[in-house]
Design goal:
With 190 residues, the protein is mainly alpha-helical. The protein is built from 6 helices and 5 strands, in the order E-H-H-H-E-E-H-E-E-H-H. The protein starts with 5 loop residues before the first strand and ends with a helix.
Length: 190
């Protein structure tokens, strides 16, 4: 799973330039893993007949795949590169990695609302809110007219914010989960 925007030791981290923000974000957006995830999302949408105007069969799946991929790239670029560059914030997730579960879980959720300035210190995470809103607005260009309502856009924005919060939790806890599973695997092999 790509994890280009996670940092473990925030006290020893230098700010990144706008070019680096775009490069890191593009690396994540076009990682081979993302093509698989987009394929799964498109398959789920196909099975649910989401966006019926796309039809079924390979043509319908292709349209769902294309829009899902565009959604993923638009969102990543807006949240991870465009707004952070304009607002001079750091798009990386600074992993806490210590403390109790509840504290770390709360920290992960809070990063939806709080981000780090390029110059240090914390600020409201405008990039997260406006970046996802901009990506949803862009998606209205390529989704069927029947799916371009305020309520569907707002629902999509809320879903994306929730997915980003879930992603923060994975970034926070995955190293611990991975370490635990590796230890169990080694113990089973002994």
């Amino acid at each position: 799973m790509p994890n280009y925007l996670t940092v473990d030791n925030q006290s020893q981290v230098k700010p990144i330039s706008w070019k680096e923000k775009f490069a890191i974000t593009a690396s994540g957006a076009f990682d081979p893993y993302e093509f698989v995830v987009v394929g799964i999302v498109a398959g789920i949408r196909q099975a649910d007949n989401a966006y019926p105007a796309f039809g079924q069969g390979i043509e319908g799946y292709s349209k769902r795949y294309g829009t899902s991929f565009a959604d993923q790239v638009d969102g990543n670029i807006m949240v991870g590169a465009v707004y952070p560059s304009l607002l001079r914030t750091d798009p990386r997730y600074f992993r806490l990695g210590r403390g109790g579960f509840v504290h770390r879980f709360g920290y992960g959720i809070s990063r939806i609302f709080v981000t780090r300035r390029d110059s240090g210190g914390s600020v409201f995470n405008v990039s997260e809110f406006f970046g996802n809103a901009t990506a949803i607005a862009i998606s209205n260009v390529y989704y069927p007219a029947a799916n371009r309502s305020f309520s569907s856009s707002f629902s999509g924005w809320g879903l994306q914010m929730g997915l980003d919060a879930w992603g923060n939790e994975l970034k926070e806890f995955w190293p611990d989960i991975h370490r635990y599973l590796s230890k169990k695997k080694r113990a089973a092999a002994d």
